[in-house]
Design goal:
By secondary structure, this protein is an alpha/beta fold. The protein folds into two domains: 5-78 and 155-249, Rossmann fold (3-Layer(aba) Sandwich), CATH 3.40.50.300; 90-153, no CATH class. Helices cover 40% and strands 24% of the residues. The protein contains nine helices and ten strands. It has helices spanning 43-50, 72-77, 94-104, 109-122, 138-150, 168-185, 196-199, 219-226, 231-249, and strands at 5-14, 17-27, 32-36, 58-63, 66-67, 79-82, 156-160, 188-193, 204-209, 212-217. The radius of gyration is 19 Å and the shape is globular. It starts with a strand and ends with a helix. The structure holds adenosine-5'-diphosphate. Adenosine-5'-diphosphate binds at residues 14, 17, 19, 37, 39-45.
């Protein structure tokens, strides 16, 4: 079976700093994976490579079997993204924002209308379709971005710290909506976060630190591998004391 996301020895450097250090992994279809890492771990760098914004210095990244470097059009067509920074036009209505994105992907009008209706209804924002995005709360803006990211029915959805700034109820709704989509359509989700409470809800947790995977598995597996009673304790312990341990080990 083709992996939804495959990284082969992916490396990215900024001068002397290695942001991604030979990252190798595969994420299977229908998986809801959390990419958990502290600030500076390399999460944004990975997303920038996966979305084609930056090129890697070495290795390969494939989306649904398509190399981002060699087959960028096919790879990007299989990708939906919700960026950390809001990227809607505030002065346009929710519907205009969504229709614009659908047109970029070449979706027919009737299909667009049906998907906008379905997505906004599922997320409880159908009543806001004619309102300017500027009038919406932060939580509802994020929901519009999620509907938008799924309009072209991507195989893979990247969420880059997508819940930052949302209140707990909005965060919960967003996660629930994603879960529903994974279940209904088999979308693969890679959810970057520095919040352990979000990662524990994933099927698989990938712990990134200094551009390397230091643990990978179900939340329970990762908790055991990190050797502390809870995932949070293990995460804090390993990502705040590794430098000291490396010094001691070497
Ligand atoms: P995260 O998203 O997990 O916080 P980043 O991918 O932003 O991590 O950063 C990984 C490492 O790369 C950090 O050490 C960061 O300082 C460095 N870095 C990221 N972007 C740049 C850049 N444009 N120029 C130089 N260094 C960068």
């Amino acid at each position: 079976m083709t992996a939804s996301i495959e990284l082969q020895a992916l490396t990215k450097r900024y001068g002397a700093r290695t942001a991604l250090d030979g990252l190798t992994l595969q994420i299977a279809p229908r998986c809801f994976a959390a990419l958990l890492g502290p600030n500076g771990a390399g999460k944004s760098t990975l997303f920038q490579i996966l979305t084609g914004l930056f090129a890697a210095d070495g290795g390969e990244a494939l989306i649904a079997g398509h190399s981002i470097r060699k087959q960028p059009v096919a790879a990007l067509a299989a990708l939906g993204v919700v960026f950390q920074q809001m990227s809607l036009d505030l002065d346009l209505s929710v519907e205009r924002n969504l229709r614009f994105h659908a047109a970029l992907h070449g979706l027919p009008r009737a299909v667009t209308s049906e998907r906008i209706d379905q997505g906004c209804t599922a997320l409880g924002i159908a009543k806001d379709l004619k309102r300017a995005v500027r009038e919406l709360s932060g939580g509802n803006r994020r929901k519009v971005e999620l509907v938008r990211a799924l309009l072209h029915r991507p195989a893979v959805l990247l969420m880059d710290e997508a819940s930052v700034g949302l209140d707990p109820a909005s965060r919960r709704d967003l996660l629930a909506a994603l879960r529903a989509d994974v279940a209904a359509r088999g979308t693969t989700v890679l959810w970057a976060t520095h919040l352990v409470e979000e990662a524990v809800q994933a099927d698989r947790v990938l712990v990134l630190h200094h551009g390397k995977l230091i643990a990978d598995g179900t939340p329970d597996d990762v908790t055991r591998a990190l050797g502390e009673p809870t995932l949070e304790a293990g995460f804090i312990q390993r990502t705040t004391t590794t430098k000291h341990k490396e010094t001691v080990d070497s």
